[in-house]
Amino acid sequence: MYKLFFALKSASMGVQVLLEEIGVPYELIQSVVDKETPRPPEQLAINPNGWVPVLVWDEGSMYECAAITMFLCDKHPQARLAPSVDDPTRALFLQTLVYFSNSIQNAFQLTYYPDRFVDALDDEPSAQMRGCRRLRETWSVIDNQIGDNEWILGDQFSAADIYLFMLSTWLRSAKGHPSMTEFPNAKRIADKVLQMPSVQRVYQQWIQDPEY
Ligand SMILES: N[C@@H](CCC(=O)N[C@@H](CS)C(=O)NCC(=O)O)C(=O)O
Fold this sequence. Notes:
Layout: E1 2-6, H1 12-22, E2 26-30, H2 41-46, E3 54-57, E4 60-63, H3 65-75, H4 90-112, H5 124-146, H6 159-168, H7 184-194, H8 197-202, H9 204-208
Parallel strand pairs: 1-2
Antiparallel strand pairs: 1-3, 3-4
Helix pairs in contact: 1-3, 1-6, 3-4, 4-5, 4-6, 6-7
């Protein structure tokens, strides 16, 4: 039985889709992402940064969405969400997840939390603008990497495609972010992932109102 510290719109939603795809029982523990509200103490004890997702299971716990993705895929190989260690596409799987986490998510952070990157309030709009430009740069790298491929790994669907979809739901025109239409190869994958029943369940609110 897994426990997932969760907040709507956050990176915990991609992990929830993975748990649905794997078909294991799990419990969602409501958390928050705003600055003002205190986090559940059990979450903070595991992740002092105060962000979600945090995953707990009988023998352990962890945070960092990309690491949780790799962990769950490896722990439940029967779900076929990742190439095995000796598969030739394994390197691209790991590379893409880490790039998502340290480059695309970092660009999102500049636009959602500019105060973490500058000292003066006056500099925040500049950080936000750079973040938007960085989003365009990093999404373009992924779009070019995908090219004509059906999925990120070529013919083989994987958890990296679910991760890509999750990241696409964070793009907001109101924040000056680029639109997914600028990245047609990535959009092709995001559109297909959206059709998955697990994604339809988890992302019900986003599907009704993408700017929620
Ligand atoms: N590197 C972390 C980042 C997670 C993250 O930024 N989570 C956001 C929601 S998507 C959050 O909890 N924000 C609240 C905060 O940073 O205080 C990961 O990939 O798990």
